[in-house]
Amino acid sequence: MSRDESDVLVVGGGIVGLAVARALATGARPLSVRVLEREDGVGRGQTRGNSGVVHAGVYYAPGSLKARLCVEGARRLYEYCDHHAIPYQRCGKLIVAKDASELPALDELERRAGINGVPGMRRLAAEQIAEVEPHCVGVAALHSPHTGIVQFPAVAEAMAGEVRDAGGTVATGAGVEAVWTTADGIAVRHRSGQARARLAVFCAGLESDRMAVMAGGAPDPRIVPFRGAYLRLADEKADMVRGLIYPVPDPALPFLGVHLTRHMGGQVSLGPTALLVPRAGSLSWPGTWRMARRWWRTGVSELRHGVDRDGFAREAARYVPALAPADFEPWFAGRRAQALGRDGALVDDFLIHETPRALHVRNAPSPAATSSLAIADLIADRARTALGA
Ligand SMILES: Cc1cc2nc3c(=O)[nH]c(=O)nc-3n(C[C@H](O)[C@H](O)[C@H](O)COP(=O)(O)OP(=O)(O)OC[C@H]3O[C@@H](n4cnc5c(N)ncnc54)[C@H](O)[C@@H]3O)c2cc1C
User: Fold this and answer.
1) What distance in Å separates the CA atoms of residue 250 and residue 256, rounded to the nearest whole number?
2) Under DSSP, is residue 314 helix (H, G, I), strand (E, B) or coil?
3) pTM for the full model?
4) Atom 50 (ligand 1): residue with closest C-alpha?
5) What pLDDT, on a 0 to 100 scale, did the predictor assign at position 288?
6) Is the CB of 14 under 6 A from ligand 1?
7) Distance from C-alpha of 261 to C-alpha of 320, rounded to nearest angstrom
8) For strand 122-125 and strand 140-144, is the pairing parallel, antiparallel, or unpaired?
9) Could you tell me which of 249, 212, 209 has the C-alpha nearest to residue 225?
10) In which residue ranges of the chain is pLDDT below 70?
11) What is the pLDDT of residue 4?
12) H helical segments located in the chain
């Protein structure tokens, strides 16, 4: 095999692409793997600009890929961190119902958590909430003690190291610009050359729809980017939040709602917003208009917060009344790659498509960072089957 050839090309050096590369390059039946990442380092996309929460699998529809791969992925991720000495904290999460109207949705989350096999979940009455979070109030809550926090870029770096140690290549500054099939595989042109392989796996996050179309795949679904901005709680108040405080999510959205999150550095964030980011071509996609009409009618509050910082902070005070808007200042922002169907529905589950000689991760929103090791096994199995390896 020449220097530019490998068994598998992985496009995208985020946590999902690197987990896939690692799964293929290591183990009993290793394949030669080359990762091509557009940025100058790995883990710079969604893998960096996120809440850093190791989800336990509470929310997801039983039987979905998200439900199965999150529970399995969280368990595997903690083991991975132990093995590679990557710091994490199982700080626990509360999902808090503010009033009686939210109790049916809380009941449904409890039911889902039970079916999904989320470890250690328990229901708290109003007076028990303070035992977990002394400054938090609500009428009832779910406590997930195994939900935790980690720095996902550190996990991505460790995975890239494993790929290199196994003889694979992780090339940065190598944004893929063209894709075509060959007699016995697939080839790409990237910023610093060409590469060929028997199979490619595209894990390109915000660019996953464009990459799939380039490789001959369907334009449906399209990626709509949502900007997720965070505020930072003043350090002198950070001790008021021990772990993670989440609302009961809006069932109209695949997002988990604005939450208070402890980070590995000890800071506490409030966020994220969910502001639709205009992108070339998104206005000509019928799904964008269908989604906009639907949301306009429901007036989803998570979207309003994108333009109303005080309102965003007041939302936090509903859960921790001692917090005021003046306690928060702007912090970082990330971009979520959310797949949107032609019919205007946001794709809820993880989604993997195939084109000749390629697999495409078409929807890997939260909790894909938590689930990355489990997603990777699923994709690696399909890749090995396709290659007869
Ligand atoms: C605001 C926010 C909060 C979140 N919170 C959580 C959380 O708490 N817990 C959790 O589990 N998940 C969370 N998520 C989701 C999680 O971050 C993502 O699901 C996960 O990072 C997806 O990983 P990825 O590798 O698919 O994507 P990315 O990390 O975006 O990686 C894709 C990579 O592809 C590269 N790429 C794109 N185009 C090309 C090209 N043409 N050629 C080469 N490379 C290319 C990009 O540069 C990028 O590095 C959150 C996401 C956001 C945005």
Assistant:
1) 7
2) helix
3) 0.96
4) 50
5) 85
6) yes
7) 13
8) antiparallel
9) 209
10) 1-3, 295-308
11) 84
12) 15-25, 65-84, 103-116, 129-132, 152-165, 208-214, 286-298, 301-304, 309-319, 368-387
What local confidence, expressed as pLDDT, does residue 352 receive? 98
Report the alpha-carbon distance of residue 54 to residue 57 in Å, rounded.
Answer: 9
- The pLDDT of residue 291 is 83
Give the Cα separation of 215 and 197 in Å (integer).
14
Q: Edge-to-edge strands of the sheet including 53-54?
A: 53-54, 148-150, 88-89
**Helix 65-84 to helix 152-165 angle, to the nearest 10 degrees?**
70
With a 6 A CB cut-off, is 45 part of the ligand 1 pocket? yes
Residue 54 CB partners (closer than 8 Å, separation 6+): 74, 77, 78, 88, 90, 147, 148, 149, 150, 370
Q: Is the CB of 38 under 6 A from ligand 1?
A: yes
CA of 45 to the centre of ligand 1 (A): 5
Residue with tokens 């979070």: 133
Kindly report the backbone phi and psi dihedral angles of residue 255, in degrees, each rounded to the nearest multiple of 5, phi listed first.
-95, 160
CA of 201 to the centre of ligand 1 (A): 15
Q: Choose which residue among 9, 34, 47, 75 to substitute to test ligand 1 binding: the one with the highest number of ligand atoms within 8 A of its C-beta.
A: 47
Q: List, as one string, the DSSP characters of 204-232.
A: -GGGHHHHHHHTT---PSEEEEEEEEEEE
Is the CB of 151 within 6 Å of ligand 1? no
Nearest CA to ligand 1 atom 9: 53
Res 293: pLDDT? 77
Ligand 1 neighbourhood includes 148 CB (under 6 angstroms): no
Query: Is 209 near ligand 1, meaning CB less than 6 Å away?
Result: no
182 by Cβ neighbours in 10 Å (0-12 / 13-18 / 19+) ranks as exposed
- Atom 21 (ligand 1) nearest CA: 47
